[in-house]
Amino acid sequence: MPTKNTIRRNYLIIRRILQNDYPSKRTLLDYMKRYDVEIGERTFQRDLADIRSNFDIEIIYDEQKNGYYAQTDSTFDFDKLLYFIGLAESSDIILSTVKDRNKLLEYLSISPTPHAKGVENIGRLLQAIQSQMSIHFEHRNYQTGRLKEYTVFPYLLKEFEGMWYLFAYISELKAFRTFGLDRISDLIITDNHFQREKVLELTADKFNQIYGLIYEPDNNPNAPIEKVELRFSDTMLHYLKALPLHQSQTINENIITLHLIINPELENKIISYGEQVEVLYPLSLRKRIIQRLQKAISQY
């Protein structure tokens, strides 16, 4: 039966090999070392055998390309497997046989988003945030697909709709930026210590006081935290009791009150509820929602 340490090593090896560039043994070992996993030759060979027995994936060495690749049947869903291994690593799911894994994967339906990608960095990022150490990484631009290197001061990790994001300060730009963990690679915690300045700390705290991810302190540094009152239908209210809109949410009868910075993502979320919600306060937000709904109706 594989231990969590074994599952973690298997996960890292599979993830790196799936980049399809035929990584060498040295490349794989260096990759694992970045995640504080150091192993020797015997453990590496044992891990390749474990991947074969635990996940029915053959890791093969290509002598012409001097690197490894993964071989399995053409219908194999690697995205689902990586997500499942991530669950196994972070929970009490332990697989005793390949048959167990195959059976459980049949019951797992995931949306086509890179849920698992990047979550392996959360522990190290939290360590860097707590220790106030700058970090270096490559980030792939969502629109252009281009890679760019960054050295930043990490301030906050935020989960939103199943994805994780890093809110960090770039000293050269004197500005904060948001980075999706699924697009971060080659993460290195440097030896450079930074001081969490009070002004920047307040800015990072404001990022935690929004719905979603859109917060641009450079454009609106004095954005206030406002009270928002929303009246919901009984059906939607039950849903929001289980999955709150925001950490500040309180409920009184069928009225939900939020205390946060109003941004476009909050407006979009309110509109997505359609007839299930009415904005009571503030009046400025109520008017904007009315205008946007009227404009939407005019399209039909």
Structural summary, described in words:
Strands 6-5-4-3-7 form a five-stranded antiparallel sheet. It has a four-stranded antiparallel sheet with strand order 9-10-8-11. Helix 1 packs across helix 3 and helix 1 runs antiparallel to helix 4. A hairpin with a 4-residue loop joins strand 1 and strand 2. The chain is built from ten helices and eleven strands. The protein folds into three domains: 103 residues; 89 residues, SH3 type barrels (Roll), CATH 2.30.30; 72 residues, no CATH class. By secondary structure, it is an alpha+beta fold. The N and C termini lie far apart (59 Å). The longest helix is centred in the first third of the chain and has 15 residues. It is globular and about 70 Å long. The model has no long low-confidence stretch (mean pLDDT 83).
- Low-pLDDT runs of 5+ residues are none
Q: What distance separates the N and C termini?
A: 59 Å
Number of helices: 10
* Helix proportion range: 25-40%
TL;DR of this structure?
With 300 residues, this protein is an alpha+beta fold. The chain is 38% helix and 26% strand. It has three domains: 4-106; 119-207, SH3 type barrels (Roll), CATH 2.30.30; 226-297, no CATH class.
Ordered list of secondary-structure elements with their pairings:
Elements: H1 4-17, H2 25-34, H3 41-55, E1 58-62, E2 67-71, H4 78-90, H5 98-106, H6 122-131, E3 133-140, E4 147-160, E5 163-170, E6 175-180, E7 184-193, H7 198-207, E8 226-232, H8 234-242, E9 250-252, E10 255-260, H9 264-272, E11 277-281, H10 283-297
Antiparallel strand pairs: 1-2, 3-4, 3-7, 4-5, 5-6, 8-10, 8-11, 9-10
Helix pairs in contact: 1-3, 1-4
